[in-house]
Design brief:
alpha+beta; nine-stranded antiparallel sheet; six-stranded mixed sheet
Length: 725
């Protein structure tokens, strides 16, 4: 066999391989069959006969290795799994892949890709195992004409309710008399603390900053007659209405203090409403009757409008004229309180498990978490295990209002309790349980219930947010509907480019009209009151107020770190910041605002809000002139309108800005191109002088037009938020 014949044979083999490839390609297009490679012989026949052509044969083998053949029908049936179409609703869950979604819908993957063309997803980056956002999953299902439903989480076994509850009502035979719990309510500075001070002979008001009671307290007063009265002193400031409302829930009698010279005020009306809502009887104490301008009768008549009718006017409310400062008629007021208490027949069961209410709570450096509580049932002793809210305590020590240790506290007696694991919230119900293990069960159950409720709320919020985002997304899609998905992607990239490449701190600085605050207070009630005020904030369109953290205790390093992360301000009420914390804050540029009076803190917070608002531009008029004549001057080939004016008020300064007013409408703002007195160029024209002027823009003047010279000044805006005081 000669060399030429062998070469011809090789060409035939190559041509046959190419023809088979074309043939199978045509079948692939028609039948969409599956393909698989065919292994060629490692040693062709001619390579054995003619070893010198082995290298060339190897090249041919590599070329022909690309050759593929059609799979048989049997192989195709084995590999192809039949997808059952889904009827009804498609069950979806978060973080589904494209493959999982296709399986859930009963569609192939190509169908999912086709539906995703309607979104802004980069299809080139997608694989079958790529995770889709929930919004995109819902859109694919919607475009496919189907409905969706969220997959249910695995249902937990229903937990047994292990909460602690109050005991059934006691047998009337075991009830014993108890001291009445009296709350003193009224307007700020009407003398509530002075009244209590006179009754218990201590100087609480002198210790209170600004003369205003800052947080609730409970005191037991021993009268000369041997009677005992427990007083709750609630703040009278507008900020503390929630604390006053809480005080009435454990109260038997309300003493309403009204100043004789001021009469009924805003907090007086609120106090009456709190008493009515709680169904608590009133005693009216008309204070400051020693002043010359005092008018007790006017006070009684003003109260008629609020359904408070005194005995003198045919009602059932006792009214006592007093002077808390001078101590006049205080015993009469105490006797009236005792008499009303006797009518109410106040009794309680002093046996069995303890029940009570947290009046105030705080974190003391030496004592740890401490609560002031009123015992309502049972007798509290050392070693008792108590539950309040989501915390518990084994009572280590108890103290009375003077800080003296006591061994037991019976119903109606206020007491300070040590031994809490965490600080409970003011207003929480206190219940005694049998053991520490039982306390753990109660706290675990209450935590579980709160988590379940929070999960429900979170789901509602998430669904609302998703709906809102979907509507925003669809609006954007409508605007970009005429573009291809690649063009849409480019537009979105340009719109968000400045945010993508900015650092976190720069992003915070970009959004200057946000005030992030951290609130720290001395006691739970104070923090609650401040948060209630901040809840009334309604000027988010001017500056957003964001409370990133709140709590009790002195300013800590964690507070400073949080403030740095959110570019925020730390506000402290009745707390301290040691030198190391102040130095750390100064180093990081964090503001710490410490206050002991509530309205001073709110004023400071308003100043911070004002500083976040962009300044507004105000126009300050310097001079006014009226146009008396109109003519034109030729400069080169152009005719320039000139106004002959007389200055009526102030002066015209060429360096300042001007505006042209016609019939009350501003038709031009800008600068003067020339200002002349007779034929001389001048800078300033004063009142009464005539001048000619032209503008930097071609505008025809009319006789009677006004030319106003003004300067623009930046004026700091103030927030429209009114906290109520």
């Amino acid at each position: 066999m000669n060399r030429g014949l062998i070469l011809r044979f090789e060409n035939v083999v190559q041509l046959r391989g190419a023809c088979r490839q074309l043939h199978t390609l045509s079948y692939r297009k028609v039948n969409r069959a599956q393909w698989k490679p065919v292994q060629l012989s490692a040693h062709p026949m001619w390579s054995v006969l003619y070893p010198q052509f082995w290298q060339k044969d190897k090249v041919i083998s590599i070329a022909l290795s690309q050759h593929r053949h059609l799979a048989t029908k049997e192989e195709t049936k084995k590999k192809k799994t039949k997808i059952q179409p889904t009827r009804g609703e498609v069950e979806i869950r978060q973080k589904m892949t494209i493959e999982e979604l296709a399986r859930a819908m009963g569609k192939d993957i190509d169908h999912i890709y086709e539906a995703l063309l309607y979104t802004d997803i980069d299809l080139d980056s997608l694989e079958p195992d790529s995770v889709l956002y929930e919004d995109h999953i819902k859109l694919v299902i919607k475009k496919s004409g189907m409905k969706y439903k969220s997959a249910k989480l695995k249902e937990e076994k229903e937990r047994e309710n292990t909460d602690a509850v109050k005991r059934p009502p006691a047998d009337p035979a075991v009830l014993t008399p108890r001291p009445p719990v009296v709350t003193i309510l009224g307007h700020v500075d009407h003398g509530k603390t002075t009244l209590l001070d006179s009754l218990r002979k201590t100087q609480v008001a002198a210790m209170e900053a600004g003369g205003i009671t800052q947080h609730i307290g409970a005191f037991l007063v021993h009268l000369p007659s041997g009677e005992k009265i427990t007083f709750l002193d609630t703040p009278g400031h507008a900020a503390f209405s929630a604390m006053r409302a809480r005080g009435t829930h454990v109260t038997d009698i309300v003493i309403l203090v009204v100043a004789a010279e001021d009469g009924v005020m805003q907090q007086t009306i609120e106090s009456i409403q709190h008493a009515k809502n709680a169904g608590v009887p009133l005693i009216l104490a008309i204070n400051k009757c020693d002043k010359p301008e005092a008018d007790p009768e006017r006070v009684k008549k003003e109260l008629l409008a609020h359904d408070v009718v005194c005995e003198e006017l045919g009602g059932d409310v006792q009214a006592v004229n007093i002077s808390a400062l001078k101590g006049e008629n205080l015993m009469v007021l105490a006797e009236a309180t005792v008499a009303l208490a006797e009518m109410l027949e106040l009794k309680a069961d002093s046996t069995g498990l303890v029940e009570g209410t947290v009046i105030e709570s705080r974190k003391d450096k030496g004592k740890g978490p401490v609560t002031t509580a009123i015992i309502q049932r049972g007798t509290l002793r050392k070693g008792c295990v108590l539950v309040a809210g989501k915390t518990w305590a084994k009572v280590r020590f108890m103290f009375d209002e003077n800080g003296k240790a006591v061994d037991a506290a019976s119903p109606g007696i206020p007491v300070e309790i040590m031994g809490w694991k965490e600080v409970p919230s003011a207003g929480d119900e206190i219940l005694e349980v049998e053991s520490e293990q039982r306390a753990h069960e109660v706290v675990a159950w209450r935590t579980y219930v709160e988590q379940q409720e929070k999960m429900k709320r979170d789901v509602e919020v998430i669904e609302a947010k998703q709906k809102e985002h979907r509507m925003e997304y669809e609006k954007k899609q409508q605007k970009l509907a005429h573009l291809t998905w690649r063009q849409r992607k480019a537009v979105l990239y340009k719109a968000n480019k400045h945010l993508m490449f900015s650092k976190p701190k720069e992003r915070t600085e970009m959004d200057k009209n946000v005030l992030s605050v951290i609130v720290k207070g001395d006691v739970d009630g104070s923090v609650e009151a401040i948060l209630n005020i901040l809840d009334s904030y309604d000027a988010d369109d001017e500056c957003k107020l964001d409370i990133i953290h709140f709590g009790m205790g002195d300013i800590s390093e964690t507070d400073i770190s949080l403030a740095e992360a959110f570019n925020g301000v730390v506000f402290g009420f009745g707390v301290k910041a040691n030198e190391s914390i102040k130095q750390l804050a100064a180093k990081k540029g964090i503001k710490i605002k410490l206050h002991s009076i509530i309205y001073k803190l709110i004023e400071d917070l308003k100043d911070e809000l004002n500083s976040r608002l962009p300044p507004s531009v105000a126009e300050n008029t310097i001079g006014e002139a009226s146009v008396l004549n109109v003519f034109s001057v030729t400069v080169g080939k152009n005719k320039i309108p000139v106004a002959g004016c007389r200055v009526q008020k102030g002066l015209l300064d060429k360096k300042m800005k001007f505006k042209l007013v016609r019939n009350g409408d501003v038709i031009w703002k800008g600068s003067l191109s020339s200002l002349k007195h007779h034929k001389d160029d001048v800078q300033v024209i004063k009142t009464g002088m005539d001048c000619g002027l032209s503008l930097d823009k071609y505008i025809e003047f009319n006789i009677g037009d006004e030319i106003i010279c003004y300067e623009e000044k930046e004026v700091q805006q103030t927030t429209s938020w009114d906290p109520g005081f």
